[in-house]
Design a protein that fits this description.
The chain has about 190 residues and is an alpha+beta fold. It has a domain at about 1-120: Winged helix-like DNA-binding domain superfamily/Winged helix DNA-binding domain (Arc Repressor Mutant, subunit A, Orthogonal Bundle). It is about 50% helix and about 20% strand. It has 9 helices and 7 strands, in the order E-H-H-E-H-H-E-E-E-H-H-H-H-E-E-H. It has helices spanning about 10-15, 20-30, 40-45, 50-60, 95-100, 105-120, 125-135, 140-150, 180-190, and strands at about 1-5, 35-40, 65-70, 75-80, 90, 155-165, 170-180. The strands form 3 sheets. The protein has a 3-stranded antiparallel β-sheet with strand order 2-4-3. The protein has a two-stranded antiparallel sheet with strand order 1-5.
């Protein structure tokens, strides 16, 4: 099964400013658009502490992705109007589940979203470009990607192509990313 993530949540500023757990909150609130929730309700639903949930909600409110209502009891709901995007990413629910169960880190979740977004757009998914999106150094991205491979949320196929330039030839090396959780989603759908 997949969750349709609105593209506004996968832009550079969100990927750089939010932690992975904020995406659990966004998913919960966007699946329950009509309601407002107290911090304790949200924390219980996403499996976070109240303190961590409050911190994530504060950042989401600063980015105007959620609306804070303090008329009686402080509560939150999704901001449906803010930057409604035509772009949507299908993210495996299993990825959210792994984050909620702490089988992967928030950084791995964000890195997955950045790589997936860039791959869908046909742009470079180099460690340097992913680092620029997430505001991380290339070495940090390398470490995160190694953990992602170990946790089986991505795999990398290394490819080489040989080209000719003038009298000589050159070898170009590049990576092709695979998304095994998505492969499983599509097998279930078929």
């Amino acid at each position: 099964m997949v969750y349709e993530l609105d593209g506004r949540y996968a832009d550079d500023s969100c990927l750089r400013e939010l932690d992975g757990y904020a995406y659990l909150i966004l998913r919960f609130l966007s699946e329950n658009i009509e309601k407002q929730y107290k911090i304790s309700d949200i924390a219980g639903s996403v499996g976070q502490t109240k303190k961590a949930t409050k911190k994530s909600l504060k950042r989401l409110a600063e980015l105007e992705l959620v609306i804070e209502d303090s008329s009686s009891v402080l509560s939150y709901k999704i901001n449906e109007i803010k930057y409604k995007s035509d772009l949507h990413m299908l993210v495996p629910i299993e990825l959210y589940d792994k984050l909620q169960k702490q089988e992967i880190t928030g950084q791995e979740f964000l890195c997955y979203l950045a790589i997936r977004r860039e791959a869908l757009a046909g742009r470079s998914c180099s460690q340097e470009s992913i680092g620029n999106i997430l505001g991380l150094k290339k070495q940090a991205v390398y470490i995160i990607i190694k953990r992602m491979i170990k946790n089986e949320i991505i795999y990398i196929a290394y490819k080489k192509s040989i080209g000719k330039a003038g009298k000589g030839s050159f070898v170009k090396k590049y990576n092709i990313y695979g998304f095994p959780l998505e492969d499983e989603c599509w097998r279930v759908v078929e």
